[in-house]
Amino acid sequence: MRNALTLSAEIRAALADGMPVVALESTVIAHGLPHPDNLETSQAMEQAVRDAGAVPATIAVVDGRIRVGLSEEDRAHLADPEADIAKLSRRDIAACVVAGGTGATTVSATMICAQAAGIEVFATGGIGGVHRGAVETMDISADLLELSRTPVLTVASGAKSILDLPKTLEYLETQGVPVLGYQTDTLPAFHSRASDLPLDHRVDTPEQAARIARLHWSLGLGGLLLCNPVPEDAALALGEVETWIDAALAEAGQAGIAGKTVTPFLLSRIAKSSGGRSLTANRALLIDNARVGAEIAIALSQRNDG
What we know:
Blueprint: E1 5-7, H1 9-16, E2 21-24, H2 27-32, H3 37-52, E3 55-62, E4 65-68, H4 72-79, E5 86-88, H5 93-98, E6 103-105, H6 107-117, E7 121-123, H7 134-137, H8 142-149, E8 153-156, H9 165-174, E9 179-182, E10 201-203, H10 206-218, E11 224-227, H11 238-255, H12 262-273, H13 277-305
Parallel strand pairs: 1-4, 2-3, 2-7, 5-6, 7-8, 8-11, 9-10, 9-11
Antiparallel strand pairs: 3-4, 3-6
Helix pairs in contact: 3-13, 6-8, 10-13, 11-12
């Protein structure tokens, strides 16, 4: 794996010096947000990490190399709506590298690459999960298994609201993944700050999260999910979002949309129904999760120093 990695000079130096580093995914650039919001949000996430005192490491596969830390040219190419950018999950990394291809990393792929590079914290928007109707379709994201396998702390605003949140939470419990509410007692619902799903564990400071993560890893266990609610001034009402999701799901079913294309289709329809407010919420939570990830990475690096 390391032979396929190319770390930017900044990331190499930061890791060698024991500085706090936060991994960021690239799917948000290539597939998660429309142009130019995708490029602007990626830049804002990196700036949020820097402002908090850590180093951002956006990850993608570019021309057959796993890049940890992207150039402005790399980022612009991924953000280009005319570019043919693959969407990479765990199963796709090796094939894309061997083919010399270019792809944006999802949650599972970013976790794998971050761990290979020696990065302990990853910030994203929302994880994938159990899709609605999974009893018939068996559509369950590889993100959930990756969280159980790979020793990285992931900061997210829960799972994407288009998913079956109760089943997603149950699946995480089955896989033994600690789901920590960051200053919240319930699972955030992505665009909405809270759901009716209580969480067993709450943390209120980056230091507390770092202590839990360090002990979890010392026991030889996998990843952790820290759920940070969308900022209050950008949050949407849960009932309103559910109405939009139901309409989008019905449209996707009629159009025969399935697999990797479901999530971007549904999110685009919700953005249209909300008059762009869901995009505002998405951008806000991505940036805030990057900030929280940086604070936890700093706390982890200080514990390493100790």
